[in-house]
Amino acid sequence: MMKLTIPERAEMYNVNWGKRFPRSRLNITPTGDGYCIDGMWMLGKDYRKANPFYGAYPGNYLARVMTMFPDAEGVMHLFSGSLPKGDYTRVDTLNGEREVNADAHELGQVFDPGEFDLILADPPYSAEDAAKYGTPMIRRKVVLQECAAVLQPGGFLVWLDVEVPQWRKVDFRCVGMIGLITSAGHRGRFVSILERVARESEDKND
Q: How many Cβ atoms from other residues are within 10 Å of residue 67's Cβ?
């Protein structure tokens, strides 16, 4: 992954999507340790092309996210049951076609440290959602630690959820928080963008 700054990634989005949808432009806020992206995405819902898969990504969500990460090479889609095959690693425990069948709580046992530079995750939001998938509810904190184990320093985790997940400061720093709304009567969500930080032991090995 290229050494693009957070403002540069936000600007790539604004150039590609912000001109078409000015209300969805992303803002850049200076923080104590860099910059943070913030904004609101109002995607709407196209009932004419409804995805039959329960919990599928909202329309245009992936296209918007990937505009910020065109340089990502090792990409994992976590909890990705509705996605077709592509130039990425799908990790899912759902029945059906997949590339890797793995438990999200044990990613470090399946993949090498630093194998990925981008992970996109859209987990079950509640026990009721998990029941519809036929899986147990995830333990968010454990999954985030496992994501950190297989992300390279400087890589990103983009986590779509109805709540902001908890992460350890030794693993991640928050570089983006985007509200996401599809339409009335549907749950609002958060797009948390977390950057994998380098630990002291990793710095010494470089």
A: 17
